[in-house]
Amino acid sequence: MANYLVLGLFEEVSSAAAAIEGVRRIGVPDNRVSVMSGTPIRSKLLGRRPARNWLGLMSLLGALLGLGAAVTLLVGAPLLYPMYQGGQPLIPIPPSIIITFELTMMGTMWVTFGGFWLLNRFPRFGRPVYDPRITAGMIGVLVEADEGRAGRVVDLFKNGNAADVQRVGARPQIDNRAWGRWLAVVGVLLGLVLIIAPLFVYDVIRIPFGTQMDDQASVPYDGGPRLAAPANSVPIQGPVFVSDQPATQPVPANPNSLQRGQVLFDINCALCHGPKGDGNGRLSGFFTPKPFDLTGAPVQALSDQQIFTVISKGFGVMPPLHENLDVEQRWDVVDWVRNLKK
Amino acid sequence: MVNDQTSQTLPEHKWTMVVDLDRCTGCSACVVACHAENNVPIVNEDQVWRGRSIHWIHLQRYWEGDYPQKQARFIPTMCQQCAKAPCEPVCPVYASLHSTRQNLNLQVYNRCVGTRYCENNDPYKVRFFNFYPPRFDPPLEQQLNPDVTVRSLGVMEKCTFCLQRINRAEQAALSEGRALRMDEVIPACVQTCPPSALMFGDANDPNSPIRQVINGNRYRSFRLLESLGTEPAVVYLKGGEAHGGQ
Amino acid sequence: MAANEAHLPVWKRPLPEDPRLARQAQQLREEHLNLDPRPPDEMMETVMRPTTRAPLAFWLIWLLLGGGVLTLGIVWLIQMIGGIGIVGISRPVMWAVYIANFVYFIGIGHAGTFISAAFRALKISWRGPISRAAELVTVFGLTTAALFPLIHLGRTWKGYYLIPYPNGRGLWPSFHSPLVWDLIAITTYLTCSTLFAYLSILPDVAMARDRATIPWRRRFLEVFSLGFSGTEGQWATLNTALNVFTYALIPVMFSVHTIVSWDFAMALQPGWHSTVFGPYFVVGALFSGAAAVIIVLALVRKFMHLEYFIRKEHFNGMGLFLLILSLTWAYFFFNDYLAPWYGKAPADVALSMRFERGLGAPYWYLMLFANIVVPWSILWNRRWRTSLPLLLTVAVFVNVGMYLERINIVAIGLGINELPFDWGVYRLQLPETLITIGAFSLLGFLFFLFSRLLPIIPVWEVQEGQQEEELRHEGAGMVVTRGTGE
Fold it and tell me: Contacts of residue A40 in chain C, CB cutoff 8 Å?
C-alpha cells in the first residue's frame, strides 16, 4: 500500500497538541509523527515523549578520548625521549593536571560537535517535506500514514485549525547515500592529510630552510681559505722582506725585461759575480767569502723576493743597490738572474 | 640528559667556575676572549644604546659614591649554569635544557624559536638574543671558530662554559683511553684572564685544583642571588673592601 | 485576560481598558524584550535587513579596516624578513606590546563566553539578544590574539615546533612550559567557542535561509544551515550539545586566562611572581571583555537599527556587570599591590617606585583612573548606566585602562629586575604601533564581514525567552507562536 506524508501547519501549541493527540487516536504510531518548529517547544506541551538522544554518551566518549590523548602525550613523550629541565621531574604533576584538563575538555566538545552532525545526519541531502513558514512561527506536524489513515489525518488537521495541510507521496526525508558519499569524501581528505603530513615530518620530503644554520660562515678545519689574501697580508708563496713589494716576480720574463736585465747585470753585478753569474768576476778574488754562484741550486732555490731583497739591501760584504737601481730595474735583474740558471 | 650512548661510559662532572673578585681588575680581556672563541657577534652603536649588545661574559659595573670618592664595583657575570635553572622549564621547545652528566645548562640553537621566555625568567639576565642576523663582515668570518655554531636571526645564546672545549678534551681523552686531566679543560675567559681571577674545574673531583680553591675560601665565598634557589655553579670570592682589603 | 484573547499572539492582544493599567502594560512592553514579542517574520526581517543593505559609509569604513589588516600583514612580513630588531624590545624587556596585545585580545573574549555560556547556565533572562554579539567578540578576539604568539617569535617560521606531533627526530614540546599550556588552552578555547557559536547560530541560519531571496545568499545559507529543519530530534540534540558546551566552556574560560596569567606568574621576575595573578587576570579579562561587549552592542544597535532587540534593560544589566567587575578587579589589584608593598623586597620596591614616581607613573595613574574612578563614579546611578553615551564613555575608558594594565605588567614591569645593572627601559617603535592598529582593524574587519552574511541577534533564543516568559505567566497551552502578524 502506498504511504503518504501529511504536513499540517498550526499557529499555536494547543491546536498542534490536539492534532497530535488526534493522530495518535487514529492509530498512527508515535515514531511516524514528527514535529518541526522554528523555536524549541517542550515535548510535554505537545503531548509527546521527549526524544532520546545519545549525544550525552558521545560527549563522555569524547572526554575519555581527550583524557587518553593527554595521558599519552604527558607520559609517553618524556619516557620515550627524556629531557630534563629546571630540576623538575620528567612527568611533573601540576603541569600534567593543566594539560589533562584542557585536552579532556577539548575532546568532549569536539566529539559533541561531531556527534551532533552524525546523529542528525548533517549536512542533510535530499528533498525533505518542509515549509518555510515553520521558521516563521508555524508548528509543522508531519505524519506518515497509509492511504486510509492519511485521508483521516488530512480531515483531522483541517478541522483542527491547521493553517495549511499538504499531502504528498511518501519519500525518504534524508538521502543517506549522498550523506554517505559526503562522509567518504571527508574521510578521504583526512586520510590524505594523515598520509602526506608524515612525509614532511619524517624528512622523506625535505624543505631546505635558510636559517637552519646548516651553512656556517666559519671556515671548517678541512677547508682552505676562501678569499684571496688581501694586500699586505703574509703570502703563502714565500716571505716578503721588503714591504710594498710582492712575493713573486711582478715583471714577466719577456725579452725586453731580459735584455734590460742583462745590461744592468753587466754594469752592476758582473764585476763580482762574473758575466755568466758563476761567481768568477774580475774582483771575486778580493772577497772572503767569494761572491756567490748565482747559477747553482742554493741561490736559484731562493724566492724571488729574497733575491730582490738581497739586491736591494745587500748581503754581507755585498753592498745595497737600492740607490743604483730603481724597483723595476731590480726586478729585471731578478729576471735575468733566473735566466742564468743552468 | 641528552640521549647518547657514550654518556653511559663517561663520568659525571660538576663544572664550576670560581671568580676571585679580589683579583679581578676589570680589564675585560675575558669579554674579548669569549667573543673570539664563541663567534659572538658585535652589534652597532645604535643597538648598543638600545640595550642589545651581546657579551656572554660581561662586567656588571656599579658606581659607588660621589666625586672625588667615586668608585666602580664590578662583577664578571656569565651564565651561572644553575642546577635548578629557571630558564629551562619555561622553554616550550626544549631549546634550553639540562645535561645531567655535565651538570650544565644547554642551549640548542637550531631548536630555539625565539619566544624569549628564558630571558624573562633568568634572574641574572645572562641570556642574549639575536635581534638581527649577526654580521661578520669579511674578512672577519675567517676568524670564526668552526667548533661553535654561528647563530642565525632569532635565537637565544649564552655562555656554555666553552662546552666545545670540554667536549674536545673528553673526546681526546676517550680516544687515548685515559682519564680526563683537569688542566686539559679551560674556557677561553679563564685562559685569558691576566691576574687569574677566573678559575675553572670539576668540583666533583676531590683532587682538582678548583676543589681546593673552593674548600680553602669558604670564609669569603658567595653565589649570586642564592636566595632564589637556582643553585648556580659559579662561586664568587669576596675581595676588596668587602673583605678586609682596600 | 479574557478567554478569547488567549489565542491571540501578544502583539495583537488589546491593552486593558483602565488607562493606568494600560499605561503600565505599555511601559512593561517597552522596557522588557521578553514581554514584547513581535511576529517572527518581522523579527527576522529586522535582523537580516542590514545584511542586504549597507550605506556607502559602511563600505568605506570596511575598506579602511581592510587597509589596516593589510598593514598588519605587510609589517609582519617586513619584521620576519628583516629581523625582529625593528621592534622596541631589548634586553631585559624581551616581551612588550605584542604580548600585551595577546593578553588583551584574549581577555576581551572572556566576557563573550561568560554571557553566552555562564548567563545561559544561570538562566539570566536578559542575555537573549546580546549573546551572539558577545560570542563573536570572543571568537574574533581570539582569532586576532592567536596571531600574536606567532608575531612575537624570533623565528616565526619554526613556530610549529610548539605543536605536539610525532616526528622523525623524537622531539616534542615541553609540557613544563606555560607557553605550551597556552597553546593547548587557547586552541581548546578558540575552536570550542567557534563550534559553540556555530551551534547556536544554526536555527537562525535556517530562519534566514527560509527568508532569503537573493540567490547567492540563499545558497550560502542553505549550505551553512546544514539542512536544519527544527525537528524534535534536532532540537533535543542541539539542546544537549549546547548544554555540554555551556558547562564545559565555563571552566575552560576560567582556565584559559589563568593559564595566560601563568605565563607571568611562573617567572621569577619581580612584579610577576604573584600567586594572585590567576584570579586577577580572569577578573581583568571579564572586566575588559564586558566593556568591549558594551561597545560592540552600542555600535551594532545604532548602525544596524536593532533598537527593538537591545534595550535599556540590557545596557543596565551590562552596566551593573561592569560595575561588579570593576569592584572585583580593584579588590584583586589591591591584593597584588599590598604584598610587595608590605614585604619591601628591594626589587619589588624599585618596581613600585617606577610605577608610582618614575617612568611608568602616567600609565599607572591613568590605569587606576580609568578602571576605578570612572566606573565607580558613573555606574552606580541607574539613569547614567542606561544613558548610552555615558556608558560608552565608561566602556572606552575601561578598555584603555585594562590595555594599560597589561602594558604596565609586561613592558614596564620587565624593566626592573633583581640586578640593577640589567634594568632597562622599553621604547615603543613604529612597527608595534602599526601592528596593534592592524589587530584592532582585523577585529573590526571580521565583524563587518559577519554582519554582511549572518544574523547578529539570536532570534530563536529571543523567541524562546519570550515563550518561556509567557509560559511562566500564563501556563501551558497558551503559547501562540504564529507568524505573519496580520
Answer: 235, 238-239, 460, 464
pLDDT at C17: 86
Across chain B, how many H-helices and E-strands are there? 6, 10
- Decide: helix, strand or coil at residue A155: helix
Domain assignment of residue C2, yes or no: no
In a domain, C63, yes or no: yes
The C-alpha of C222 sits at a distance from chain A's nearest C-alpha, in angstroms, of: 10
E strands along chain A, which residues? Answer: 3-10, 33-36, 139-146, 164-169
Cβ separation B116–C179 shorter than 8 A:
no
Query: What's the CATH number where C409 sits?
Result: 1.20.1630.10
B90 → closest Cβ in C172, C177, C424: C177
A109 to A228, A341, B24, B142, C327: CA distances (angstroms): 66, 95, 62, 58, 33
Average pLDDT in chain A: 87
Q: Which pairing describes strands B71-77 and B96-99: parallel, antiparallel, or unpaired?
A: unpaired
Could you tell me the three cell numbers for C478? 497558551
Q: Which string of b and e fits C129-158 if b means at least 16 CB within 10 Å?
A: bbbbbbbbbbbbbbbbbbbbbbbbbbbbeb
User: Is C6 part of a structural domain of the chain?
Assistant: no
CA C289/CA C169 separation, integer angstroms:
42
CA distance B145 to chain C (A): 24
Q: Which of B8, B37, B109, B141 to mutate to test the interface with A (most CBs of A within 10 A)?
A: B141
**AA letter at C187:** T
Instruction: Give CA–CA dist A269/A334, Å, rounded.
Output: 11
C5 confidence band (pLDDT: 50, 70, 90): low
Q: Is residue C4 included in any domain, yes or no?
A: no
CA angle A90, C251, A54 (to 5 degrees): 100
Q: Which residues contact C453 (CB under 8 A, 6 or more apart)?
A: C51, C217, C220
Q: Would you state the cell numbers that stand for residue A243, as one nine-digit string?
A: 714591504
Dump strand ranges (E) for C218-345: none
DSSP state of A320: P
Torsion over CA: C322, C323, C326, C328 (sign): negative
Distance CA C342, CA C360 (A): 20
pTM for the structure as a whole: 0.85
Count of domains forming chain C:
1
Q: What are the tens digits of pLDDT across the range C378-416? A: 999 999 999 999 999 999 999 999 999 999 999 999 999
**Per CATH, which fold does B9-243 belong to?**
Alpha-Beta Plaits (3.30.70)
| C212: its cell numbers | 532569503
Place of cell 500564563: C474
User: Residue A227 carries which DSSP code?
Assistant: S
CA-based nearest distance A218→chain B, Å: 5
CB neighbour list of residue B105: distance below 8 Å, 6 or more residues apart:
B79, B81, B82, B85, B87, B88, B96, B97, B98, B99, B158
Compute the distance between CA of residue C200 and CA of residue C314 in angstroms, rounded to an integer.
20
Give domain limits for chain B: 9-243
What number is the ipTM of this complex?
Answer: 0.91
